[in-house]
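Please annotate the following for my students:
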Amino acid sequence: MADPRIAESPVAGEEDQKLFRQVVAGSQPAFETLYARHQGRIYRFALHMSGVPDLAEDVTQEVFMVLMRQGSTFDETRGSVNAFLLGIARNYVLRRLKQERSFVLAGEAETGDDSNSSVAVDATNNQLDALTRNEEIRELQKAVLSLPSHYREVLVLCELEDLSYAEAAGVLGCAVGTVRSRLHRARTILIEKLRPAPEQSAATEGLKSARCFA
């Protein structure tokens, strides 16, 4: 099956390069435009890699500080602006994780106690469905964060950020074949981590049965 991911739009890449040259020349409006185009992607990458919103915010700011200080080091012939910025983000994330060694999961959902309220059965079922989805998201977050960094980063880049293999290879500074093999291994590990244990499956089925007779 052909890979559905495609490389970054040539037009978008050309616009980025034009903006980048203007930033290096000292244009504040160009910097603001480039920031708006890439800030979200860099933040998401850092968050998926670390699970820590504060760390992701710090890394995002660091990336654009580097852009302001060292933008002239960017070589258009070696890759896209997007790959250049994500490469900087990757280096800062790995450095911070080595420094801190411990981090917590982001996005932990808080649930209130509705035991004293009277709700309809369908509303209760909707809440149970929402809790199930939240739990699935948390399990996915934990599984991704538990991957070794070299598997985690290629999974985040290719699966969550939709980069092509070539773009991911540019960010990571490795061969396309390495990206493919790491991604295959990362998917395999992730599937194993998310596979429910027999007792968990039995409990889930029991909950579904109980809901049917509620």
